[in-house]
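Section: Multi-chain targets

For targets with more than one molecule, the full set of components is provided together so that the structure can be written out for the assembly as a whole rather than chain by chain. Components appear in the order listed by the source. The example entry contains two components.
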Amino acid sequence: MQHLYLRRTAFAVAVFLVVLTAAAAALRAC
Amino acid sequence: MRYSFWQGALWITLYAVLCMLPVAAAYAGAAAPARGFWVEFGVGLGFVGLAMMGFQFVLTGRFKQVASSFGLDAMLQFHRQMGIAGTAFVLAHPVILVVAQPGYVEFFDPRLNLPRAVALSAVTAALVLLLATTLWRRPLGLRYELWRAAHGGLALAVMFIGLVHLLQVNYYVSVPWKRALWVVMTLGAMGLLIHARVIRPLQMRRRPWRVAEVRRERGQTWTLAFEPVGHEGMSFEAGQFVWLTLGPTPFSFQQHPFSISSSAAQSGRVELTIKALGDFTSQIGETAVGTTAFLEGPYGAFTLSGEADGGVVFVAGGVGITPVVSMLRTLRDRGDHRPVTLLYGSTYAESALFWDELHALAESLNLRFVPVLEEPPDGWDGERGLFSPELLERHLPTASEPVDYYVCGPEAMMDAVESHLLRRGVPARHVFSERFQIV
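Its structure, encoded as tokens over all components, is:
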């Protein structure tokens, strides 16, 4: 069962990292 | 070993935090002046992407402490998913920079700096190759051992060029401690691969096994029995698996995971039941008795617990019966009479593994054995077809006590059964599965 959640988790982690990187860049740039 | 939601959540949070660490380190202390958002974003993706690539070596490092939260197969699936994501991050890095400021294209200009242009072009090609050979190994006709050698080599090249690029650009890492952090982290990641491919085989060389018996089972499947040579063997939990290397040396790219089929209550001998399927297993029946072998493990969280009062349900398809038969044999040897239901799917009766033994186990255990044949013989009055929701509903327990479900078999079957259990309201922590079709 963990595989069904794992795929979603991996996708969520990737999206989360993009958002965090963008937020860090935005803070840095302003 | 049980899956633990909180332990898993903790590891995933730690993973995300560590992936962001390079960005935090870049901005910390005496940082270089800030540029526009898109440049900072492009640079940030490069940092995070390289960190993700570094953690790929941890995910594939077979660390029992981490794997016990998820199952090693799930770790490898996560490695695969994050490999795709990490590649996207790293490739987005130059694309965003060049789009934001076209001047960055000079990094790829061989007239300005030949080694830099060659290195960056090579690392881009290596990344694409790394991903393509993994996603499409079978359609490309790439043999497993070649893929495995290339995968490690390309990964090392990507990390090394990534580190050199970062140090050469020297924008956010001009302070010595930042440079040291990157060097230590990158070399640490690369060291994990060296550990897996060199140190671990060296340790395994001191614990060889020999093939004691090769037994033909039904349906192009063989059971290989292994005896330890000069050591006490291994203790394992029923349902676990080992990585098998056949031949005189553990330094081989041919190392594959197989479920143990023998009882965990018997010490010494370990049996693996292997179906002749792919390039490595097609010759498995011709293995000579006396052949040296190396078993790495045991691994896996697909194991029995004593927690579910309502008993256990196994849903197995084809060769997916091997870890299940290990659990059933162990229950028999330990005199465990918990209620067990086994739904076992096979195409034909003739190719159904452990057919006679499963019928015998149904007599000696508190086991309800439900064979399901896709192509049953004439006169068959048992279940037929695939594991449809209707078929499952006819046999799954309706008791209110918690029941543990173990699902092992072909991908499509596992998807169907797991989805049905979810819809039925079975909590995810009571469903166990194992998947090894990764590359």
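Chain A is about 95% helix and 0% strand.
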